Amino acid sequence: MLYAILCYADEEKVFAWSKEEEAAVMGRLQAVQEPLAKAGKLGPTGRLMPTTAATTVRKGRDEPLVVDGPFAETKEVLLGFYTVDVENLDEAIAFSKELSAVNPGSTSYEIRPFYVFHPGSSPT
C-alpha cells in the first residue's frame, strides 16, 4: 500500500538551524530512511521551501485567485513529505515514529494512503 507521510514543523525553528544542526538532523533522518530505501519501499521525499515562497490558487467567484502564501494560521506548517510503499499502516506508523524520534523540528507526521493516477488508466 502506498502512503504519503507528511511532516509538519515549526518552520521558524527549522529554518533557523545552523549548517551544523541541519547536517546533523539530516544525517539522523537519512539513517532512519536507509532501511526502507534499501528494501525498495521508500519513494520520493522532499522538503518544501518556506511558506513565504508559496503561492496558492483559490477558487474565486468568477475565476481562480492567485495569492501569496498558504495562509496557515499556525506556526506548524507542512514542511516536507515521504512516499512509502509498505505492507500496512502499522509499518508506516513505525517509520513515522522513527522519523519523529530523530527530527527535533517536527511537530507531527500525518499518514495518508494514496493512489497513483496515470492519464488513461485506473488508480493503482
From TrEMBL:
Domain annotation YCII-related: ranges: 1-114
InterPro entries: Dimeric_a/b-barrel, YCII
Family (UniProt): Belongs to the YciI family.
Protein known as: YCII-related domain-containing protein
